[in-house]
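Researcher: Next entry in the queue.
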Amino acid sequence: MVMDAIDQLYTKRPYFGVRRITEHLDTPGVVVNHKRIHRLMQIMGIQAIYPKPNTSIPNVQHEIYPYLLTGVQAAYPNHIWGTDITYIRVKGAWMYLVAMLDWFSRYVVSWELSDTLCVAFCTEALQKALAVGIPDIHNSDQGAQFTAEEYIALLKAYDTIQISMDGRGRAMDNIFTERLWRTVKYEEVYLKEYQSPKEARQSLTDYFTFYNHERKHQAHKYRTPADLYFNRR
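Model: Structure for this entry, 233 residues:
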């Protein structure tokens, strides 16, 4: 299916727009053209201009928070959290996955799945994450979900949390979460054919348990994200 091919190519090369995706998919047996690819990318919520899935519609009336991470590297657990939304295919439809990622350990502090781009599933993920730890800096894009009053209110309830937001067109500011999506899709989503939201949730639950507690990272001297996040030797 062409949409599946677009999803896989775009996840691997998030900086590809309509023209480059069309060129890569233009192979024998696959009928594509710029108009068709553009239409399908619009259905999937992928922007052709910026290197990022357009899963967060900008809220033009929100308060603008500065990007605080220029030249800053995560130095300890709960120093920096990044959050983002991606899309997951479930039996011919799309669902949306949000995650709270600790940048230092790459530990997925929480995640939620929804069949709509509502604010509620993002606030639920944030509430779950805040029950685990409190970040010094929370970074997101300027999408409507992350700039909604109820979402910002959860962050402002903690005086120590600094709110950071990517500038427009700076999608790769959230690079660690982009890498997480690529890992989740190639190690889990693309290997499965979820038949229902229930099946997707259960399978993703199993995967994130594996990712956090069993998947060792070479960059972390073969320790798991949970080992670093909870400071386990």
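Model: DSSP finds nine helices and five strands in the chain.
Researcher: Noted, moving on.
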